[in-house]
């Protein structure tokens, strides 16, 4: 049976691993929701930087999970499955946000092209968006 201090160390490692998965998830979700609301051009760049942060924290989290595994041996520890799910869950979430963002931006470009055609002004982006405009 491990000593209480060793159990506390393992709990701290598991908690740190969970935060390694949760931090980029929360930041990325906030960036995406702010972008949907505001359409700011700075937020996609922040999203890409958050992806880099997420990759770094994924590596750190996997290292922490490996350290927990080495210290715990064959015992199953509560929280390790959640930590792994949070770490790996960032990848499909980032892909989902990228796909949704692409569709939202395409809709915005189409609307801008249609508005430019209605007002007879020059629209400088997404030339193929003009074809789908309904007059």
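Q: What amino acid sequence fits the structure above?
A:
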């Amino acid at each position: 049976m491990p000593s209480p201090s060793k159990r506390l160390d393992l709990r701290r490692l598991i908690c740190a691993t969970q935060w390694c998965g949760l931090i980029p998830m929360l930041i990325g979700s906030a960036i995406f929701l702010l972008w949907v609301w505001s359409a700011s051009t700075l937020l996609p760049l922040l999203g890409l930087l958050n992806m880099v942060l997420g990759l770094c924290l994924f590596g750190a989290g996997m290292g922490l999970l490996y350290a927990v595994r080495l210290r715990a041996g064959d015992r199953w520890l509560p929280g390790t499955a959640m930590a792994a799910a949070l770490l790996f869950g960032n990848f499909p979430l980032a892909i989902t946000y990228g796909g949704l963002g692409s569709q939202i931006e395409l809709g915005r470009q189409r609307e801008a092209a249609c508005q430019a055609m209605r007002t007879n002004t020059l629209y400088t982006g997404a030339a193929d968006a003009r074809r789908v405009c309904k007059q």
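Q: And what stands out in the fold?
A: The chain has a mean pLDDT of 84.
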